[in-house]
Amino acid sequence: MTHASLPDHWQELIAGYALGDLSPDEAEEVRRLLEANPALHQEVTQLQETLALLPYDLADREPPLALRSNILTAAQTETSTIPAQTPQRTTHGIHPRWWSVGGAIAAVLIGALAIDNYQLRRQVTESEEIVALLQQPSTQLYTLQGTGAAIEASGSLVVNSDHDQVVILVKNLPELPQSQAYRLWAMPQEGATPVYCGQFNTTAEATTTTTWTPPEEECTAIAHQVLLTAESASDPPIPAGELVMQGVL
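Predicted structure:
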């Protein structure tokens, strides 16, 4: 589709429309654009499907070991600064030993909450970075669909040529053994030799959101088609494994 008749900021508008965070005037502008350019409906649908994958893919990630240690140390320090209270005699006869046990439990809980907060911030940051990519003119969005044994798999591939970056979001794609990997291939034109663009694996939940810089310039150019195959992780970058997903712009 040609975008010559669209305003310069149309990508930002439809991304905001897909997110549902436009002002009433902006939303009305998008509705007029959709009415005048029916082909935009498909792009909005692709964006909505891609954004819907974010909750699936942003699995919990532990903070780096050094940061995790600092978080837990800070949590323990915080509990140690709580003024000590002399337990009063009650009819229940609470033993003083339980006060120290309670403090230890509090330290663990505070540490766990701090780590959860770190993970949440990390997830929000990743989501914001992907949304920012989707709003840029140099971004291409491919819709991925499973094939063969992975027919239930679906996802999106976000490619940004200005930042030399690709992001893949998939769900219902089974995790491979450590000796294997999913490999991404770009076909610059029909019948061309596939270009190797990197490899990844999914999680035990059969999802992933993975970002990387591809090894070849052709990977961030507009491709006729993109393919995902299941390969041995140590094999040369030649497509020889089973085709599991494919997609087009």
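Summary: The domain at 137-249 is CATH 2.60.40.200 (Immunoglobulin-like).
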